[in-house]
């Protein structure tokens, strides 16, 4: 008789689907998103690229519940998004740590439960980003890359089902950036959250994402699947071909 193979026990949160339908968002006379449609599957890793000012951060803020569309709708996990959700976490280019709180308290901030529970969750998350031994430090003594790892731990501690990453590696040097990309990929695989990464770096998008989505003129102008095994090898001929395709779409677009 065949034994039924059960998946290993895991704490991994199941990623949530994201559905963006005909979203319009403008600021005064400036129309930024002009009826944008985008569907993201549970647990998928999607990278958003596009020219500066095309509306990438605007879209991420909408997905994070920090802003609302003028018209159109957004569902997360099949439920209309109405504001901030504990299951959706954002990470930015700057770590945004509170300088008067130690590293562990920064990570524990806003976690549910009593103090001991919050502290244990913060230490576990710091361990996942390799910074358990820096828990008692002040943020100011950390490097830029370490601060971003703390920011990642702060997001992870909430066991997010959607992680929104707004150019989180933009300010890091090339080596630290690659190390952080690997860390994000590992954590995404282990935790199973849905990831949406805004990046200017097309090779970063292709290293990490299942799909690269290019926004132009307020809509999705290109939606490119990246069907390559992970971890992906830099300089791989297939990646280079996809990179040329995305870059040519970016460069071909008429300037606004
Ligand atoms: N709250 C706001 N009020 C007024 N204008 C805004 C606001 N938020 C965004 N904008 C404008 O909307 C446009 C899109 O901004 P957004 O930050 O989404 O672009 P982006 O694609 O993320 O750009 P970048 O790649 O340079 O970060 C820009 O022209 C920006 O100035």
Which descriptors apply to this entry?
256 residues; 24% strand; 7 helices; ATP hydrolysis activity; alpha/beta; 10 strands; binds adenosine-5'-triphosphate; six-stranded mixed beta sheet; Rossmann fold; four-stranded antiparallel beta sheet; 2 domains
Give the strand order of the largest sheet, numbering strands 1, 2, ... along the chain: 6-7-8-3-9-10
CATH topology of the largest domain: Rossmann fold
H/E series? EEEHEEEHHHEHEHEEH
Structural domain tally: 2
Number of strands: 10
Tell me the major beta sheet.
Answer: 6 strands, mixed
Residue windows where pLDDT falls under 50 for at least 5 positions: 1-10
CATH class of the largest domain, named Alpha Beta
Percent in strands: 15-25%
Q: Rg to the nearest angstrom?
A: 19 Å
CATH architecture of the largest domain: 3-Layer(aba) Sandwich
Helix/sheet category: alpha/beta
Determine the fraction of residues in helical runs and give it as a percent range. 25-40%
CATH superfamily of the largest domain: P-loop containing nucleotide triphosphate hydrolases
Q: Name the ligand types.
A: adenosine-5'-triphosphate
Envelope shape: globular
**Overall pLDDT score:** 91
- Give the count of helical stretches: 7
Organism: Verticiella sediminum
Domain ABC transporter: 18-242
Protein name: ATP-binding cassette domain-containing protein
GO molecular function: ATP binding; ATP hydrolysis activity
């Amino acid at each position: 008789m065949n034994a039924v193979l059960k998946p290993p026990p895991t704490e991994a949160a199941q990623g949530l689907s994201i559905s963006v339908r005909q979203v319009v968002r403008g600021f005064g006379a400036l129309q930024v998103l002009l009826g944008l449609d985008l569907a993201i599957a549970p647990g998928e890793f999607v990278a958003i690229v596009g020219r500066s000012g095309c509306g990438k951060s605007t879209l991420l803020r909408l997905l994070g519940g920090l802003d609302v569309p003028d018209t159109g709708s957004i569902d997360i996990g099949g439920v209309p998004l109405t504001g901030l959700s504990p299951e959706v976490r954002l990470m930015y280019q700057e770590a945004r740590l509170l300088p008067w709180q130690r590293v562990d308290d920064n990570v524990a901030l806003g976690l549910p439960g009593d103090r001991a529970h919050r502290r244990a969750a913060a230490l576990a998350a710091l361990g996942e980003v390799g910074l358990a031994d820096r828990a008692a430090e002040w943020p100011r003594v950390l490097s830029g890359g370490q601060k971003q790892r703390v920011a990642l731990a702060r997001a992870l501690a909430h066991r997010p089902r959607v992680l929104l990453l707004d150019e989180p590696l933009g300010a890091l040097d090339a080596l630290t950036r690659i190390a952080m990309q690997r860390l994000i990929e590992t954590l995404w695989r282990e935790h199973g959250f849905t990831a949406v990464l805004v990046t200017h770096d097309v090779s970063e998008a292709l290293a990490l994402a299942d799909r690269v989505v290019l926004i132009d003129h307020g809509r999705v102008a290109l939606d490119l699947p990246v069907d390559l095994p992970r971890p992906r090898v830099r300089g791989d001929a297939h990646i280079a071909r996809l990179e040329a395709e995305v870059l040519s779409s970016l460069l071909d677009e008429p300037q606004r």
